[in-house]
Amino acid sequence: MESGCRRRHKGEVEDSVKRASVTLHEVAAAAGVSIATASRALTGKDRVSAQTAEHVAAVAERLGYRVNLIGRGLRAGTGATIGVVVPVISNPFYGELIHRLEDHLQQRGFDLVIADSHGDVERERDRLRMLVERRVEGVFVVPSDAELSFDAVADTATRVPLVQLDRRVIDLPADFVGVDNHRGIELAIAHLTAAGATRLVLVSGNDVTSVGRERREAFENTVRARALPRKENIFGEYLLRFGEEAARTLLSRGPLPDAIVAGDDLVAAGVIAALKRALVHVPSDVQVTGFDGTMLADVCEPRLTTVVQPFDELAREAVEALTRRMDQPDAPYVLSRVAPSLRVAESTSADH
């Protein structure tokens, strides 16, 4: 009798484990609907008929699907989860991007779980593994390294639908959505040269990331095409302190360039802060441009001329790419480049 009880208990445990492993993808396939529809049906979101909601709920119950609850602040019954791994969550760019991603995901019945890799490849690998183990339905990743992130991102893409966002791993066959970095740098340089600047210096991230590579290549190609004097550019990390250090380096070299093209708004803010401490006036002594269009551009003094990334469009296209990959695992990969714009302010023009 005792051993029989034990056998029944073991069987119940095995059945429970089996049922707990059911994913939303399997529920959607069994119900004959898309993952987004299944998620909305199970979370009470709009745009799903009562008949569809009842059908999906019945299939989910039969398969033993249980809503996956992970991440601080998630409420019971809020639906399936999507993970996102970013390199520096404190960067205002990623804060704004995550906010827009969350908006678009919630419209489709998904919740967002955020992980920070701190720009470290090993931490990135751990964060991706954690998300997969906790059965997220899809993953957005901003790779911390254009080459060294290859294995972890490629492995994750074989286990769960994945979209690279903002940055990408070189030669990795996976969906990608980001801004047109070449166009952004061209816009900044065209604005500066139209006002008479000829001596330009790029202060930007290094070649560790795809964004760093693309913005450097765009700058060098545009300077060459416009036959502008070649200057020694400065490369480092997309951090405030790097911008400050780069400004001090430029000050130590002697005469300043006409303009400093910063690789992002954080770097530009650091450059301007260090120049002000050295009593260098922006824009009359040197002009400064940023890249991203974050809140930093508005709180800088003077306000920052910057290349504006269309956050909402980036998020919308990324969510569309991910849900497409969920519904069509064998579909051709998406490589989407969204066009930026330039917002002119006081850091390049005293008239603004």
TrEMBL record:
SMART domains: HTH_LACI. Residues 22-76 form the HTH lacI-type domain. CDD domains: HTH_LacI, PBP1_LacI_sugar_binding-like. Keywords: DNA-binding, Transcription, Transcription regulation. It comes from the Bacteria. InterPro entries: HTH_LacI, LacI/GalR-like_sensor, Lambda_DNA-bd_dom_sf, Peripla_BP_I. This is LacI family transcriptional regulator. It comes from Microbacterium algeriense.
